[in-house]
Design goal:
The mean pLDDT is 90. The protein has helices spanning 41-47, 60-73, 90-104, 110-120; strands at residues 52-57, 77-85, 106-108. The chain is an alpha/beta fold and 121 residues long. The longest helix has 15 residues, at 90-104. The termini are far apart. A three-stranded parallel beta sheet has the order 1-2-3. The chain has a single domain (11-120), classed as Isochorismatase-like (Rossmann fold), CATH 3.40.50. Helix 3 (90-104) links the parallel strand 2 and strand 3.
Length: 121
């Protein structure tokens, strides 16, 4: 494996231009399976007084699972967007979203979550 693979120097880890951060936005480089491991994400969230995380990503059985469980253990409110996550194993995705993650987190579709944003405004 090349030494720069999965690091900030890896071209494959670059942020897509369509999702590029705005001027001044904080960027946290993720270098482990959980988004919290090996970086300052928890401190950044605490400094911003953020207590609710909404997760989407791939694979459900790796990054989403690890991040959701660690976030729940750190006392964050966690919402997993079931239709904005995927796994190479559809059966594993289904079991994780409907059984395991549903016990520790809120699980919603993007449309269901979007309705909560409308209700909050």
């Amino acid at each position: 494996m090349p030494p720069h693979l999965f690091t900030a120097d890896d071209p494959g880890a670059a942020i897509h231009p369509d999702a590029a951060p705005a001027e001044g936005e904080i960027v946290v480089h993720k270098n482990r399976v959980s988004a919290f491991a090996g970086n300052s994400l928890q401190q950044i969230l605490a400094a911003q007084d953020i207590g609710h995380l909404v997760l989407a990503g791939i694979p459900t059985g790796g990054i989403v699972l690890s991040t959701a469980l660690q976030a729940a253990d750190l006392d964050y409110r966690v919402t997993v967007l079931s239709d904005a996550c995927a796994d190479p194993s559809p059966a594993l995705h289904h079991a994780l979203v409907n059984d395991l993650l549903a016990r520790r987190c809120e699980v919603a579709t993007v449309a269901e979550w979007a309705l909560t944003l409308d209700a909050a405004s």
